[in-house]
Please model this.
Amino acid sequence: MINAKKILVLAPHTDDGELGCGGTIVKLLEQGAEVYYAAFSMCTRSLPAHLDPRTLEHEVKAATAVLGIAKENLHLFDYDVRYFPSVRQNILEDLVKLNKTIKPDLVLLPNTDDVHQDHQTISAEGIRAFKHVNVMGYELPWNNLKFTSNAHIRLEEKHIIRKAEALAEYKSQAHRNYMNEPFVRGWAQMRGTQAGATFAEAFEVIHILA
Model:
């Protein structure tokens, strides 16, 4: 793994970071790295009307705590879900501020082939904002018609268990077919097979500085 001591995870929406690289986050924290997490939308528009508008804010705080991310390392923004392209300059400015404040060694963000418009915006503007930083793109299979998996982080079962426990905090999203432990485990096993391990998470190498 890249010898990174300060990692920033960029999540377009709450839960994207846990889904794409939750196991890797746990492993990095175990190795003594500082991990920061920035989510750019609380997805209020996507919530059923009967739920508290702050539901996903509460859930992301709980989920990242399960992974082991310090609460002071969690940065939450509230851009309107599905409308990121219309405010991409504002998002870029927030990303530049995060770069100046955190000074990460490694940024994990949505891969460049993600088809969701919000994910595309965070990926493209993230690459611009962190062009002098190591950058890797995480995988979200339901948004990928193709994916360049040219890096794998080998994981242990304990990392996958913690990832599933974190995702279980998103009770408002439990109906989604990728928010359950059997899917998370099978996905990690498939990538593990490619990596010569029991479990792994896959990444697209976007920019590595040696």
The mean pLDDT is 97. The first helix runs from residue 16 to 30. The longest strand covers residues 199-207. The two ends are 13 Å apart (CA to CA).
